[in-house]
Amino acid sequence: MKSNLKIAVTLIICVLAIACNKDKNQEKINGDKNQLTQIFPKGEKGSKDLFTGNAYNTGLVDADSVFTTAVGNVYFQPGARSNWHSHPSGQILIITDGVGYHQIEGRPVEIIKKGDIIKCPPNVRHWHGASADVGLQQLYIVPNTEKGIVNWNEAVTDKLYQSAK
């Protein structure tokens, strides 16, 4: 009987220890909500002529004559955003971490977050980037690159960006 009681007490202590440790690990994860999980290398810093703030691009799939699709990863630090731009064949964004904004010209600014998929129509101006407080990481897919990849335009104004908050 004493042996069964000792086993039961030992099991309860082990379960409590595991549960307490799990809570501490969750606190560490939740403690820095602004820290993004990188899937791919950060990449090269984007040009100040094309981005406001710090944005980094890593090409993952170069366009070629077989697949005619470009794929890459962009990491936007908090407050960073692209200029207005368009793609001859459109663009698909897959948000892999963080929080940010996206706007198709003539439509309201949208909040985007991890797990969202955004379709930017062909030849339609749009912009995207991180929120002011949290970075954004995204995969981009540009199909039919034989038609062209991107046409860059002017910077998104601070007034427009701040209206997204």
From the structure above, extract its key features:
165 residues, alpha+beta, eight-stranded antiparallel beta sheet, globular
Question: Overview of this structure, please?
Answer:
With 165 residues, the protein is α+β, with helices and mostly antiparallel strands. It has helices at residues 2-31, 158-162; strands spanning 44-45, 51-52, 55-61, 70-76, 81-82, 85-86, 91-104, 110-113, 117-120, 126-130, 136-142, 151-152. It contains 2 helices and 12 strands; from the N terminus they run αββββββββββββα. A hairpin with a 5-residue loop joins β7 (91-104) and β8. Strands 1, 3, 4, 7, 8, 9, 10 and 11 form an 8-stranded antiparallel β-sheet that branches. A two-stranded antiparallel ribbon has the order 2-5. 21% of the residues lie in helices and 35% in strands. It starts with a helix and ends with a helix.
Residues in β-strands, percent: 35-45%
**How many individual β-strands?**
12
Shape: globular
Q: What is the radius of gyration?
A: 22 Å
Low-confidence parts: 7-31
How many angstroms does the end-to-end distance come to? 64 Å
Helix content: 10-25%
Summarize the structure.
The chain has 165 residues and is an alpha+beta fold. It has helices spanning 2-31, 158-162; strands at 44-45, 51-52, 55-61, 70-76, 81-82, 85-86, 91-104, 110-113, 117-120, 126-130, 136-142, 151-152.
Q: What's the structural blueprint in terms of helices and strands?
A:
Layout: H1 2-31, E1 44-45, E2 51-52, E3 55-61, E4 70-76, E5 81-82, E6 85-86, E7 91-104, E8 110-113, E9 117-120, E10 126-130, E11 136-142, E12 151-152, H2 158-162
Antiparallel strand pairs: 1-3, 2-5, 3-4, 4-11, 6-12, 7-8, 7-9, 7-10, 7-11
